[in-house]
Amino acid sequence: MSTKKLRVLVLTCSTRPGALGPAVNRWLLDAVADRADQLGVELVPVSLDDLDLPFLDEEEHPSSGVYRHEHTRRWSAIADAADGFIAVTPEYNYGMPATLKNALDYLSAEWAWKPIGFVSYGHTSAGTRAVQHAKQVVTTLRMMPLGATVAIRIGEAVERFEDAVAAGALRPDPARDAAGIALLDELARVANALRPMRERARTESRPGPVAGSYARALTPDDAAEVTVLQRCCWVEEAVVNDTLDIPALHESVEDIREWLAAWRTTGLWLDGRLLGIVRTRRIRDVWDIGRLAVAPDQRGRGLGTWLLRTAESAADPECRRFVLFTGAKSRRNIDFYEREGYVRTSDDAPEGTVGLAKERAGLPQ
Hints:
- There is one protein chain.
- By secondary structure, the protein is α/β, with parallel strands linked by helices.
- The chain has two domains: 6-200, Flavodoxin domain (Rossmann fold, 3-Layer(aba) Sandwich); 207-359, 3-Layer(aba) Sandwich (Aminopeptidase).
- The chain is 40% helix and 24% strand.
- The protein has 13 helices and 13 strands.
- It has helices at residues 21-39, 48-51, 70-80, 98-105, 128-140, 154-157, 161-167, 174-200, 223-241, 247-250, 253-262, 303-313, 331-339; strands at residues 6-12, 41-47, 84-90, 115-122, 144-153, 206-207, 214-217, 264-270, 273-283, 286-294, 321-327, 343-344, 353-359.
- The strands form two sheets. Strands 6-7-8-9-10-11-13-12 form an eight-stranded mixed beta sheet, sandwiched between helices. Strands 2-1-3-4-5 form a five-stranded parallel beta sheet.
- α1 packs across α8 and α9 packs across α11.
- The longest helix has 27 residues, at 174-200.
- The mean pLDDT is 92.
């Protein structure tokens, strides 16, 4: 499971003047705030009224991702950055508000593999028919509607509708608070479970060397996962080289966050787990390759070879050779690199390591 915070949009769906929606939204945010902190969830309130979306006016189908209007691009960026949604919605004539349907219709890929929960409110049915209507739509968009819901009967939640709207508050109700927390709990579980599918669908990821795996550029937000992988991989190196003086074993999450911002680093993932990494950078006409690591239980599957060749193929055009370092006693590593065409160099190497280099093929002499 990722250590990144989940970003959840809490959507106020009614745009009708004098609606109860803002008060319901405020109740929910207050009721689940402590639990959100415990779960590592960032709650972001969004009013559909503030988005200023006209009825769908894009020429291209949303699945194309071609958006000509600024209001669409803005809404796309907001929704795309989210890991899940909670829709605070009334029921209008046995269905959801047109504003919610319109907001859903604008986008396509931004919704995929994300959970959505519902807090409905109304009179006789407490808004539940709006939720049933919405579930038919969101499943078509590859969203996952939750089983847990909160249904609020207005007559039980407020003494007088006008007073509640003016005060922006609902009547206290511990049972309703508990239902809101249960909704958030389920949303967090589902959002974490679906995270690998969301990441795999990202346009900047590409297939990896084993079925279901994918590679993407790592960012400072991936520092925690890199920390765990490094500790697993370099313990063996410490034993083989009879030293604990190995930077990868001692770097903090903040240290790793810092170098992830400076190096180009590729991560190989499977089902949300980081299987391997390699980092690269250019130093004049040299392509520096470092921190090639594969989880111990994944060795022997060609992952290291794939990562090394991926690193080489990403070299800047001006780079004439590849250089890397490994432990001086790491015979298995040295043999691997020599099979890939690397030879020992006379370049200065950190104490306890050996440098290896390979001339880049295909360059004019």
